Amino acid sequence: MTDTLSVDGLTVHYATREGALQALRDVALDVPAGQIVGIVGESGCGKSTLINALLQLMPENARIAAGSVKLEGEELVGATQRRLRDMRGRDISVVFQDPMTSLNPVLTIGRQMRDIQYREPCNRAEKLRRAAGMLGRVGLPDPQAKLDAYPHELSGGQRQRVAIAMAVLMRPRLLIADEPTTALDATLEVQIIELLKELQLEIGCAILFISHHLGVIAELCDRVVVMYAGEAVEEGPVADVFLHPSHPYTAKLIECDPGRMKTRAALLPSIPGDLPDLTAPPKECIFRDRCDKATELCRTKPAPVAVNGAHWARCHYAAELGL
Q1: Distance of CA 67 to the CA centre of its chain
Q2: Are 321 and 245 spatial neighbours (Cβ–Cβ below 8 Å)?
Q3: What domains lie within the chain, and their CATH numbers?
Q4: What is the radius of gyration, based on Cα positions, of the chain?
Q5: Which of 215, 223, 296, 306 is least surrounded, with the fewest CB atoms within 10 Å of its CB?
Q6: What is the pLDDT of residues 278-310, one digit of tens each?
Q7: 80/88 Cα distance (integer angstroms)
């Protein structure tokens, strides 16, 4: 199976007064064609930086210090701005976390969906017809009328469906979903997950799904990458990683999932300690100071350890933990 997205050794630094903040370090992951790969981790793990690096839309103080990002073999790092503009929206699309900030509040839905088809040779009427068809496909009632509506006239769930419709309208090769269910209630969350599954099968695109919600990742994704403090610490098929976590951080993330709690508790489970200073990340295991299984061996940085097939973890004891 070929890879739609291939990331190898990606390292991103932010210039700060305290020095270079190493937001991503040697991140490698692949998103095979036709699969959904999830990225999970707590706040500050580098999820947003990864998205910005993939899109080559980084702030002025950020730079890619090393690594490669390829879309179906084409290198994006160092590509011209014109080429990148041509690819965004057509080859790579994004569904952002909050549709109220990603949709323009002063333009109608129809105008926005027409504008994103500016590369298409068809006329205005045809573009609006295609827009209405996609709004209907994502489950919006009376899609023709929705073309004349403004974002504030729709509910949160409807706005998210509009954002998804806009993202898939051009049938991209890669769809990046940045926590698209965070602002929705549980019922709508399930509906959006099912919708993404259906659209992925119809369009045949690969999806990179970013979330901190383990249940959503387990329900939607084929593979999962666990990130911590700018590093990918574990990767594998969803069932393997969740049933047999092979990195202590992954195990603690799963333990902290409120959905696993069977009884009432005054305090929610948490991971003790703080994230390391990424302007001077430790040379040892990045999770050592928060790990209750750390030993002297953990003072040396672990390489990825194969656990079972395509399941690996960046831990000296990965093979033992994954049993």
Answers
A1: 19
A2: yes
A3: 3-88+222-321 (3.40.50.300)
A4: 21
A5: 296
A6: 999 999 999 999 999 899 999 999 999 999 889
A7: 13
